[in-house]
Structure formats: C-alpha cells, structure tokens
Amino acid sequence: MSLLELRNVEARYGPVKALHGVSLTVGDGELVAVLGANGAGKTTTLRAISGTVRRTGDLVFGGEAIPGRTEATAKAGIAHVPEGRGTFSDLTVWENLRLGAYTRRGGIKDDARRVFGFFPRLEERRHQQAGTLSGGEQQMLALGRAMMARPKLLLLDEPSLGLAPIVVNEIFAALERMKVQDGISVLVVEQNANLVLAHAARAYVLEVGTVVVEGTSDELRANESVRKSYLGY
Amino acid sequence: MQFGGIVALDEVSFDAGAGEIVGLIGPNGAGKTTVFNVITRLYTPTEGEVRFDGESLLGTPPNRVIRRGIARTFQNVELFRGMSVIDNVRVGAHARQGEQSADDVLFYVNLHSVRDRPASELPFGTQKRVELARALASGPQLLLLDEPAGGLSHEEVDQLGKFIRRMRDDFELTILLVEHHMGLVMSVADRVHVLDFGRKIAEGTPAQVQADKGVIEAYLGAES
Fold first, then answer.
1. Which residues contact B176 (CB under 8 A, 6 or more apart)?
2. Which option is the CATH number for A2-77+153-231: 3.30.70.100, 3.40.50.300, 3.30.70.890, 3.40.50.150?
3. Residue B2 exposed, middle or buried by CB count within 10 Å (0-12, 13-18, 19+)
4. Do A136 and B157 lie within an 8 Å CB cutoff?
5. Cβ contact B71:B135 at 8 Å
C-alpha cells in the first residue's frame, strides 16, 4: 500500500486552473521525483498535498483521508519545504529548528545534532537571525527545520535552489540516508533532473497541470522527450 | 565589508568590462549576493572603492543607483506582490524614463500573455522573468542577475542562456551573473570570478576555473 495517494486532484489560483486532475502515489520509504517545465504545476502539486492551496479530489495518507488544512497535514507527519524557504527571519537559526519539532512529542537534541551533522554551517550560526543568513544557508535551515519534525513524508520544492553544487550533492546523499535509516518517504520537485533521477525510484512528468509521463527513473531516462527537455542529452 | 564581527567580503577586487558577461560563483555564504548589495549601495563597504563608468558609486544613495544605469534582480524574487506584471515593469520604466515602454519590454521577454495577472500568482521561474523585465525597462548599462535559472527546467535554462547573450547584444549591456547552475555559467560567461569566505580564490575563463583544483574542492565537488 502506498503511503500517499492522490486521485484526480485539482487546484486553482483565482480563475486560473493550475492542476487538472493529478494522480500519483508515493510508497513507504520511497523517493519520488516530480519533473516539469516552469508553470507545469509542480509547486502547486506540493501545495495541494500540504493544504497550502485549496484542492478538490482525494488525498489518502497512511490509509486515511486527510483534510486539506495545513495543521492536519503537519500533524499527520507531512513536512513541506516550500519554494522560497519560508524561514522565520526574525528568529534565530536555533529557534527556527525548535519550531520544526513543535507539532510532535519527544526530545530534539538528537535531531538537532543530526541536522548540524548535515549542515555544520547552521551550528556555527545557531544564534544568528535567520534573515541575516545567505540565501543558500536559509535553504539549509528550511531543510533542517523540516527534518526536526521527524516527518513520514518530506515534500521538497527545488532543494537545490541557491545551493552550491557540492552542497546539492550532500543534500541528496543526506536524503538517501534518511530514507534508508529512518524510512522517510520523499516527494521532490527538482530542476536538476539528472541528479534527482539518480536518487529517485520513480518520477512523474507534469505538463500544464497533468501527469504526462510516469515511470521508473530508468524508464524516464530512456524516454527521448524527457531526455531532451529535462536531461539535456 | 563587515557585519558585526563577520567579515563578509575581504579585500575583493574585480572588474567587468563594457559588454562583458562576468560570472560570480562560490560556495554558499561566500559573499556573492553581498557583492551585489555593495554595488547597488544597499551596503556601504567598511573599506574599499566601487567605481562605475570611471566614477565612484559610494556617493550615490541606493535609490539613485538605478539612475546611474545599474539594475538588478534578486535571488528570491522581490516583486511588488499585489501589483500586476505590467505595473511592476512600469516601476522599472518610471525609475529612469527608459526609451522603451513597459509593454515593449514585456513583448521582448515574452510575457505579454500574463500582462495583467498579479505578479505573485505566477510560477517562480516566470516571476524571475518579470524581475528581469522590470530591470530592463529602466534602460540599464549594467545588469546584475542573481540566480536567474532558479525554477527552470534544463531546456528552459538552455533558452535562458541564449536569451542572456541576445539581451546583452540588443541592449549593449554589461552583465554580472551569480548562478549555481554551472551549465549556464559556463555557456554564457566570458570570464568567471570565484569567491570563497569573502575572498577571491580564482578567476579566468569558464574552462580555466572549472579545472581549478581549489574551485573543485571548495565548490564543485569531485563529481562535477
């Protein structure tokens, strides 16, 4: 059984329909990628899952229908790292991380240690206001804050945005470890398709708000139009 | 350039010649955006000098920088969110009474189909293009682009690279480009400067810096 299943999900911004019936699944401990051009509906798909945009259609998570409200989503174990990060700029790095654990029980020390293990820069800057971090450091903080929630499902919107190539490689290695060690599932939107397909089991390609191609990463790499548009060879 | 006890830029010197596309790369927190903020006068450097077209910029207040012919985009998009696309671009045109109308610029960047939509509703990659249009509408000589490839697919990044070069030629621009997408930097930049911890660690042609051992270690990683 899938951890997450979307069936015919639609969403709109005012008069503009952004999703025209998207269906997809994410399995337990699976890393699934969403590819697509600018404006294809990738970000809206993640927003529809976390309830940050109104949706119609069915969403089943862990065998249960989850209402489209953000607090219900967070409590169910879905953490969303949005495009543009959304870190609290007046709070310190440490306060932002603590907020990530707000919706769950249990300690935070080990989680924080793990986040600092992934991103040593955050430990150096733990008492600094988030708004004074560089763009890439804020991206690290947004990821770290989501990890603090110990989510079952992590929704990542372009984690590579603003990050140096060397850090991007580290992040995907970290996701791989979280997936294997903690059984976390990941649904990731990413422009670096070569990289994400190297880590994802499966992927969906969106065009104009619908899924046009889906398959295993190998199948997608063998697909000529996918290669041309997203992989560049 | 210092913030409290943190030295964000440490004796950084570089230049960009007229008509050049100069790439600025480096690890996160290296000071790339700080360079842009110094040039646009959001920050005043604690030491050093910034010259544009032979004259110091340091006497120019931030709101007059655009009249000197310098325009920029932002890494995380800083549009007037409640305003339409065309109104955002009009702000750019108004800032310097450029020769082109805001509508001309929208056609040029191929955004006319979303002319009257609220800017904040558009996809991230499109919002970046609106910012570019706003900057172009001011008729700049120097254009600072902070991660223009954000939110774009591979194919779109290819198109963006061609577009940046065409824009440079059509408007006779000098362009400073901060970008982590190495494919883009390598295909459009004439020269590249590499920053790390606020210092310049390398400069050269794209091919030279890509082969530089220090740059690979600090920034690109072994695989790249």
1. B16, B22, B24, B36, B39, B142, B143, B144, B145
2. 3.40.50.300
3. middle
4. no
5. yes
Query: What string of DSSP letters covers B71-89?
Result: EE--TT----TTSBHHHHH
Q: How far is A163 from chain B (nearest CA, A)?
A: 6
Task: Enter the pTM of the model.
Answer: 0.87
Judging contacts by C-beta atoms under 8 Å, the chain A residues touching residue B124 are 38, 43, 83-84, 158
Contacts of B155 in chain A (CB under 8 A): 37, 228-230, 232
Superfamily per CATH, domain B2-69+140-220: P-loop containing nucleotide triphosphate hydrolases (3.40.50.300)
pLDDT in single tens digits along all 233 residues of chain A:
799 999 999 999 888 899 999 999 999 999 999 999 999 999 999 999 999 999 999 999 999 999 889 999 999 999 999 987 789 999 999 999 999 998 888 889 999 998 998 889 999 999 999 998 888 889 889 999 999 999 999 999 998 888 888 888 888 888 888 888 888 999 999 988 999 999 999 999 999 999 999 999 999 999 998 998 888 77
The domain segmentation of chain B, as residue ranges, is 2-69+140-220, 78-139
Interchain contact A43–B (C-beta under 8 A) = yes
The interface predicted TM-score of the complex, written ipTM, equals: 0.78
Interface residue of B124, B129, B158, B182 to substitute, partner A, most A CBs within 10 Å: B124
